[in-house]
Amino acid sequence: MTSVILADDQELVRSGFRLILELAGFDVLGEAADGRAAVELARETRPDVVLMDIRMPVMDGIEATRRIGQAGLPSRVLVLTTFDLDEYVYEALRAGASGFLLKDAGRERLVEAVRTVAAGESLFAPTVLQRLVTHFVHRPPPGAARLDGPLAELSEREAEVLRLVGRGLSNAEIAEELVISQATVKTHVRHVLQKLGLRDRVQAVALVYETGLL
């Protein structure tokens, strides 16, 4: 059974999420009303997934996400965000979040998101990903779009796959886009992560935005 802890400073929100997740068969191990408590709870219970709000007292969700990663916990963090908090999404991604979900997502979307992240996949709400893309297109970082440094080790096809990962496409969607098999896509993704020393697809997305590869 997939285990989850809930971190949100609003008790009503936590209660609603707990009800939805427990009805879906998840094991909710506990709740935290601030980031520091969330980190402590994660250390104690080692859940599969931490459902993490961004704006909380004592310690925000970004720092809490970073500390969970630094602690070497197996827990994957699913960050809750809203349109008015878009400026924090990239920071949460850099901190090690495995996915982003809009706070007003419906019941089915919430359940699907937790299952996806628990399975080791990354998840981005389409609107959140679009905001990230728009932000970095308008304000590209210095040295954008150069295949230098570690990126220079990638083959042309691997760089192409990395760009599509940065757009938030799944392996199936990348396979369709490039007219290749999903098995080939998985191989390319694995090679990209190995060559660049990345933990997962989320870090790959962060790198795409940092380098201006899109």
What are its keywords?
214 residues, alpha/beta, Rossmann fold, Arc Repressor Mutant, subunit A, 2 domains, 6-stranded parallel sheet, 10 helices
Question: What report would you give on this structure?
Answer:
- This protein has 214 residues and is an alpha/beta fold.
- It has 2 domains: 3-134, 3-Layer(aba) Sandwich (Rossmann fold), CATH 3.40.50; 141-211, Arc Repressor Mutant, subunit A (Orthogonal Bundle).
- Helices cover 52% and strands 13% of the residues.
- The protein has 10 helices and 6 strands.
- The chain has helices spanning 11-23, 35-45, 61-70, 89-95, 107-118, 126-138, 156-166, 171-178, 182-196, 201-211, and strands spanning 3-7, 27-32, 49-53, 76-81, 99-102, 123-124.
- It has a 6-stranded parallel sheet, sandwiched between helices.
- Helix 2 (35-45) packs parallel to helix 3 and helix 7 packs across helix 9 (182-196).
- It is globular.
- Mean pLDDT is 83; it is low at 140-146.
